[in-house]
């Protein structure tokens, strides 16, 4: 039952009405003004998903490419490089080091060299090995902590002050600047601080792009449109090996290249993107919201009737009606107990999904396969993950899809530890096998599906006036999990099976938490907490009445 359709108010306007009145110069009847929500205008007059929305989603989603590049670039820039004794052989390292016989820690100073040169990675340039090896994970940890804090700021700024489009602009420009400055880092400490700054800067891209894309389409297309952005995230991921391989002799050049792309996007593409009409309506800027909707309708070959206006969604209660919530107004997401409960469950589950999703990507170096090959394989696995997610979202419940994706990711990670075998040389390390690589690829694909669907699920769980804040809080939880993952990756250099065991357990736990949340498939997007609370109570009441009728018939 669609309560938004029932709430349409057809109002007679004359010159005695307050601030919204229209006047006539003759004795004829005033025109009928039909007040609709943005959701109703999109569904009835603009079109659920047409050419204009496709173009809008495409332009917005391009920014996901830079988000991916800035997030995952450390896979190459902070990689553990190979070394060799000068002149070849292993003559310079006859003693046993902390990681086994013949390790770099047992070599005499000056008797060995990095095979890719001293500037191939930050580890080689600043000597982040042996007793300094844990410093190699510091930049990635601080990057995700910066992302966590940035999500807090960008979410509130986008919802309360600047809107989605301006926030994306600020995030892209600051990400470009911090990436370029990172290429000039003189030492590991400045480098770590700039990675923290870059994480803070780029965190607004994913949050606002997802919300800005889904808020211009009808309910039927929200899931698929939310997935389209992740295609570009995958494209950014896949582009990294292509950028990094030719520049493998100098990690600084990689940062220089990825700093240019968001700057070009901000200047040449973003000016053609429209602000979210839902956000404009919530802020009372209904004239601007109608202009955006008229523009979308024209590109779809449609026209919105001149007597249609947008209602300002100040409350979920219509004038003169009594509210089941007692006219209660909520100041924030946390002031509504049902919303706070949902948010906490999403954040706990998000921590596990973020930990696994980013952890698997950063953990590829512990598979003992060629780094460029494994990264490219993981990036390619994101493509079927997005396709599969898009297809499954069209007919599956969000909650079920998310839970089972997490289960598959967890089981696959556990299998990675099982398939690991002892290296041929007898060192206390685990070598990768093709079975292990296959399990890792399937696990990453499932984790990618869970990661993508979780964002879409969060968008649908909360109303417009708290949606960006809710997505930013989820992002914080995902980034917190990602911040812990690099530490486990460093530990995984000594025991890969242990790291995969932790990844697997957390993924399964995240899937279990999903069953305490409501289903949102085909549910309308509400504008305020009050409106959503009343509508959901009416839905529950309607469902109870139907059940009573069926019981009486029996």
UniProtKB/TrEMBL annotation:
Record domain Major facilitator superfamily (MFS) profile: where: 56-522
Q: Tell me the compartments it is located in.
A: Membrane
Q: Name one GO cellular component term.
A: membrane
Q: What is the lineage of its organism?
A: Eukaryota, Viridiplantae, Streptophyta, Embryophyta, Tracheophyta
Q: Give the transmembrane region(s).
A: 134-155, 167-194, 200-218, 230-247, 253-273, 343-360, 372-394, 401-421, 441-462, 474-492, 498-517
Q: Which Gene Ontology molecular function entries are recorded, alphabetically?
A: transmembrane transporter activity
Signal sequence, start to end:
none
* The protein, known as: Major facilitator superfamily (MFS) profile domain-containing protein
Q: Which PANTHER family does the entry mention?
A: SOLUTE CARRIER FAMILY 22 MEMBER
Task: Fetch the InterPro entries from UniProt.
Answer: MFS_dom (IPR020846), MFS_sugar_transport-like (IPR005828), MFS_trans_sf (IPR036259)
| Entry-linked SUPFAM superfamilies | MFS general substrate transporter
* Swiss-Prot/TrEMBL keywords: Membrane, Transmembrane, Transmembrane helix
Indicate yes or no for the key word Thylakoid: no
Topology relative to the lipid bilayer, per the entry, is: Multi-pass membrane protein
Taxonomy, superkingdom: Eukaryota
């Amino acid at each position: 039952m669609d309560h938004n359709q029932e709430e349409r108010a057809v109002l007679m306007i004359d010159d005695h009405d307050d601030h919204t009145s229209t006047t006539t110069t003759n004795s004829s009847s005033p025109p009928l003004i039909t007040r609709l929500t943005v959701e109703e205008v999109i569904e009835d007059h603009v079109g659920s998903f047409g050419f204009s929305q496709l173009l809008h989603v495409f332009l917005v989603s391009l920014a996901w490419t830079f988000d991916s590049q800035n997030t995952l670039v450390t896979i190459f820039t902070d990689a553990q490089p190979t070394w060799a004794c000068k002149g070849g052989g292993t003559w310079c390292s006859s003693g046993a080091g902390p990681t086994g016989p013949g390790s770099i820690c047992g070599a005499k100073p000056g008797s060995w060299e990095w095979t890719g040169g001293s500037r191939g990675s930050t580890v080689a340039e600043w000597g982040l090995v042996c007793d300094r090896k844990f410093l190699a994970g510091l930049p990635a940890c601080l990057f995700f902590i910066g992302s966590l804090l940035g999500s807090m700021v960008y979410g509130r700024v986008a919802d309360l002050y600047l809107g989605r489009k301006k926030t994306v602009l600020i995030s892209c420009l600051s990400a470009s600047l911090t990436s370029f400055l990172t290429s000039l880092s003189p030492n590991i400490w400045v480098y770590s601080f700039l990675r923290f700054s870059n994480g803070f800067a780029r965190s607004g891209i994913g949050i606002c792009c997802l919300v800005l894309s889904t808020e211009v389409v009808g309910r039927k297309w929200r899931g698929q449109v939310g997935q389209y952005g992740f295609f570009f995230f995958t494209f950014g991921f896949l582009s990294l090996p292509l950028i990094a391989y030719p520049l493998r002799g100098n990690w600084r050049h990689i940062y220089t290249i990825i700093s240019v792309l968001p700057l070009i996007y901000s200047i040449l593409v973003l000016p053609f993107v429209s602000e979210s009409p839902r956000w404009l309506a919530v802020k009372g800027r209904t004239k601007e919201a109608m202009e955006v909707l008229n523009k979308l309708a024209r590109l779809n070959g449609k026209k919105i009737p001149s007597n249609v206006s947008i209602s300002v969604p100040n409350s979920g209660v219509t004038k003169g009606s009594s509210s089941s919530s007692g006219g209660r107004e909520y100041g924030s997401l946390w002031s509504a107990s049902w919303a706070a409960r949902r948010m906490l469950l999403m954040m706990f589950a998000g921590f596990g999904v973020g930990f696994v999703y980013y952890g698997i990507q950063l953990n590829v170096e512990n598979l003992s396969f060629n780094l460029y090959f494994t990264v490219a394989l993981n990036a390619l696995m994101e493509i079927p993950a997005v396709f599969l997610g898009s297809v499954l979202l069209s007919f599956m419940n969000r909650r079920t899809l998310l839970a089972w994706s997490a289960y598959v990711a967890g089981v696959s990670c556990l299998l990675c530890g099982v398939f690991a075998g002892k290296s041929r040389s007898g060192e206390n390390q685990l070598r990768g096998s093709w079975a292990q690589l296959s399990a890792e690829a399937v696990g990453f694909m499932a984790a990618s599906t869970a990661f993508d669907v979780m964002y879409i699920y969060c968008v649908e769980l909360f109303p417009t006036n708290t949606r960006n804040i809710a997505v930013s809080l989820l992002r914080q939880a995902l980034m917190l999990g990602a911040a812990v993952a690099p530490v486990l990756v460093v530990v995984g250099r000594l025991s890969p099976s242990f790291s995969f065991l932790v990844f697997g357990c957390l993924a399964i736990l995240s899937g279990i938490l999903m069953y305490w949340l409501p289903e949102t498939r085909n549910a309308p997007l509400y504008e305020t907490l009050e409106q959503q609370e009343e509508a959901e109570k009416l839905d529950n009441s309607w469902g109870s009445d139907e059940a009573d009728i069926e019981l009486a018939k029996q």
